[in-house]
Amino acid sequence: MDTAASFDIAGVSVAPGAAQDVTFQITTMATGMASSLAVRVLHGAKPGPAVFVSAAIHGDEIIGTAVIQRLAQVLRPENLSGTVLLVPVANIFGFLNRSRYLPDRRDLNRSFPGSSGGSLAGQIANIFYREVVGRCQLGIDIHSAAIHRYNLPQIRIAAGNKRLTELAMAFGAPVIIESPLREGSLRDLAHQTGVEMLLLEAGEALRFDRLSIETGVAGVARVLGHIGMIEADDGLANVGIPARANRSVWVRSPRGGVMQAVRESGAPVRKGDLLACVSGLFGEDAQEMVSPVDGIIIGHATLPVVHQGDALFHIAEIAHPERVGAQIESINDAILASEPEGFAERLLDEDEVV
Ligand SMILES: [Zn+2]
Fold it and tell me: Does domain 7-244+334-346 bear CATH number 3.40.630.10?
């Protein structure tokens, strides 16, 4: 059996088959104290690729933090071929403030590649890119919807990339969205420097939900299995084939008032299907919101208090929405059935929230 060499990071040499937590000092804050980025290194006994899994680049999008906590419990370096770097909170300052942004109001995911002499966001981007992304061939970055919004678990990839499509199919989230790269984003920089990247969107900011966490944990495991880093059947037969979309539409509130939703994320819709009614404070003048396309709801507002023009539903255009809808209904069972041994033992309580 091949044995891996040691993995050197942050002045530490991690032996094959070992796990090690390392920290990178980012900057000093107004208190004069240093702030650091925490990374867990799982260095496999056997050689293989290096992969990072990161969360909370937007500091309030913490669903990936829960996914990474589960991965830290179930991935065993002695059974791993290659190296996994876990970054449970990338935007440490936004996480502390329960905010998407940095204290200087910058967006970390528009600040790559950053620099050591730059803004707070630029300093984190620089260290995160240099010390984590730059050591890896593949990354999975986990986001959620903004506060008061929910996203159906979905993988976002650049359009027209066969390898990324293959990895996204292996991940097995219900939907794959091909979306353009945003300048300054981690995905944009990874693309330019040849690091393969999947982005998982799942759940709601500042909340945990079981579908998102289980889809994330099982999906990362399936990708690691697919590229030969762990022994796990990729479970594609059990979760169904993800639907792919390259067009999506937002449906906006026709008036200000109070929304009563009748459909939510994961529901298949046909053009003209009712999504919600928005009425005045006494329930008067209710106006219907209907789907303008055939598709599946991939995001919805969870807050019923709405202004005219608020984007309340995000719908991916899909030719056979009922097939995807049926898959999502059964996905909790399918995810459990396809998880490698040990994954099912650490289910979250349904009520667990932060
Ligand atoms: Zn985000």
Answer: yes
